[in-house]
Design goal:
Elements (H helix, E strand, L loop, with lengths): L6 E9 L11 E7 L4 H11 L8 E4 L11 E3 H5 L15 H4 L6 E6 L5 E12 L8 E6 L22 H12 L5 H14 L1
Antiparallel strand pairs: 1-2, 1-6, 2-7, 3-4, 3-5, 5-6
Organism: Candidatus Gottesmanbacteria bacterium GW2011_GWA1_44_24b
Pfam family, one: PRiA4_ORF3
Protein name: Plasmid pRiA4b Orf3-like domain-containing protein
Length: 195
């Protein structure tokens, strides 16, 4: 029997791309226990959209410019790989720390290379249910796009001319180098300013 004081958090997660004939953004509603980690929640999000949980990620309170967030949680902090100053980790931080009041909204960024962005909103807090395995998908709409769509032989089509991130990746590929985290963050900031 579960502790009667334990709370269940209901979160609405929207993938920030349009999908299907309706051109609406796909979403998932997920119930988690307040004591579960942000890492457990991140895995639930990624798997609910049919993606492999194979990249770094973070949660950010600035929805328009993640890298100017005042409240941020990143896997890089736990890995001790070039963590963003001020970022808390995700492995040991409970979801209730990041999402403590109904209406709290954060951006979830998965895979800093491909840049999958999700908007996460805490919709409800209620007593946890007995005999329920958490996290649990409780609502869904739409199909997510493929995580790794097939790339045609002509790599030029992969890089969009109006995308700062694509142009930076194209240049790095031509030079035979890999972009650092700082270079990627700079490109994301540049792209956000263009949008």
């Amino acid at each position: 029997m579960r502790n009667k004081m334990l709370k269940e958090l209901i979160l609405h997660i929207t993938l920030d791309v349009t999908s299907g004939k309706e051109k609406k953004k796909p979403y998932r509603d997920i119930a988690v226990l307040e004591t579960q980690s942000l890492s457990t929640f991140a895995k639930a999000i990624v798997e609910a959209f049919g993606f492999g949980f194979d990249h770094c990620y973070g949660f950010y309170d600035n929805l328009n410019d993640m890298f100017r967030s005042k409240e941020l949680y990143e896997l890089f902090t736990d890995l001790k790989e070039d963590p963003t100053p001020g970022a808390l980790g995700v492995e040991h931080v409970k979801i209730s720390k990041a999402f403590s009041i109904v209406g709290k909204t954060m951006r979830f960024l998965f895979d800093y290379g491909d840049g999958w962005q999700f908007t996460v909103v805490l919709c409800d807090i209620k007593p946890a249910q007995d005999k329920t395995k958490y996290p649990k998908v409780i609502g869904r709409f739409g199909d997510a796009p493929e995580q790794y769509p097939e790339i045609k032989d002509d790599d030029e089509e992969f890089y969009f001319d109006d995308c700062a991130i694509c142009q930076g990746m194209r240049q790095a590929e031509k030079e035979g180098k890999t972009l650092s985290l700082e270079e990627l963050k700079s490109l994301f900031e540049k792209q956000n300013k263009q949008n």
